[in-house]
Amino acid sequence: MTRFNASTLDESMNELDGVSGTGATALLRQFTGQGDGEVEIASENGLSIEVESEDGGQSRELERPGDDSTNLTVTQRTALDTARDALTDVNSSWRLVNGRIDRDDGDYEFRFHVNTDTTVGQASVTVDGSSGTVVELEEETRLKGTARANEAQKSNPGAGPPEDAGERGNDDDKSEDGDERELALVVADGEIAPNGTITVRALADGEPVTGEAVQLNGEQVGTTDADGAVTVTLPATGEVELTAGEGELEFELGEEDERDEVYRNLLADATLDGDTVTMTVRYDGSGVSDASVYANGELVGTTDADGTVSFTIANDTESLDVELVKGEFETEFEYERTDGTLSQTEGPHESDDGNERAEEASEDAEDDEQTEMEDHEKEEMEDHEKEEMEDHEKEEMEDDEDDDQTTETETETPETAEQ
């Protein structure tokens, strides 16, 4: 997906720049190609455009900013519920046809179809994986034949029914076997990672589907049990497409570098007793000792042999950023304080403070190098001046000696003459 930012807003405004004419009619022509209906545009906390044509067709677009995190702290099932709640209510008939996990942007993407006796349409919704908010929504519905004719006659009573008044929707709007139930695949357990193991559940209208064959990239990997679950081992890299009946789940696995592996095996459990935080840091099950711990930018202690450290926080502390530093490795965890407990909101990730310290260290190193060069140049200059001074003094001494010798010679000459 494209996150909401200045360029995204500019693109939307460019569409408005193409509007010719005045009022809602011009906007309707721009976004729907029709000249009759209503349009509503809102820009608070994002950009929202809602269009309703006279024949009952509706179109909605929404873009709003998410947070800057790419972590998936919200479960896919929770994100699906959020996406469904954001859709226009059409007798609760929206069916999920595709789900995708975007690990690069940290988003969940869903596609829905609706096909009732009166309405047909489609929608796509993107939910931020860490904040759990809808950041993009595109939805379009239209009335079928008779319903559309009735709606049109309300606006224009003198008009007769259109020729397609008996239309019941396209065959493409229904599944091949005519089954209107929704079948969705969601990740119920495990972490999506190269060579990782996850538990996938197949749900029909929210209920587990038993005995459904699940395929991974076209090859069957198992059959759902009584809970609708099946265990799947993921490949090392590449695109992943899980299917079960009409349900789809897609995501892509990038190559895992050394730092990703460290993050995946690093855990930091934190508890709060009054104002005292006790944290235990483990890597692959073993305590991480001698790691410096910073809480909201302040050094608060060092982990012991078991990887444990305790420190106090202020009474009014609501959020806690904990940075771990050991040697050249630095990482950060984020927590929220709620009702006397600490909840981790973001797992291990690259530390902003660590980057700043690294930049400062680099600048200090450059300054030290510059100072060293200046000192060296100064020493060379002093040595050069000293050599010049010594040469000058030597020349003066030699000149004095020559003068003395000349004077002595001149003094002896008269005596020699008398002799």
Q: Under the CATH scheme, which class of the domain at 258-350?
A: Mainly Beta
Radius of gyration from CA coordinates: 38 Å
How many helices in DSSP terms? 6
Mean pLDDT figure: 75
% residues in beta strands? 35-45%
How far apart, in Å, are the first and last alpha carbons? 118 Å
Which oligomerization state do the chains in this entry correspond to? single chain
C-alpha geometry: elongated
Helix and strand pattern: HHEEEHEEEEHEEEEEEEEHEEEEEEEEEH
The largest beta-sheet arranges its strands as: 1-2-3-7-6-5-4-15-14-11-12
CATH level-3 fold name of the domain at 258-350: Immunoglobulin-like
Largest sheet: 11 strands, mixed
Give an overview in words.
This protein is an alpha+beta fold. It has a domain at 258-350: Sandwich (Immunoglobulin-like), CATH 2.60.40. 28% of the residues lie in helices and 38% in strands. The protein has helices spanning 6-17, 23-32, 76-86, 145-155, 258-265, 352-418, and strands at 37-42, 47-53, 58-63, 95-102, 107-115, 119-128, 134-143, 183-190, 197-204, 207-208, 213-216, 219-223, 229-233, 238-244, 247-253, 266-273, 276-283, 286-287, 292-295, 298-302, 308-312, 319-326, 329-338, 341-349. The strands form four sheets. Strands 1-2-3-7-6-5-4-15-14-11-12 form an eleven-stranded mixed beta sheet. A five-stranded antiparallel beta sheet has the order 20-19-22-23-24, with helices on one face. Strand 2 and strand 3 form a beta hairpin. The protein starts with 5 loop residues before the first helix and ends with a helix.
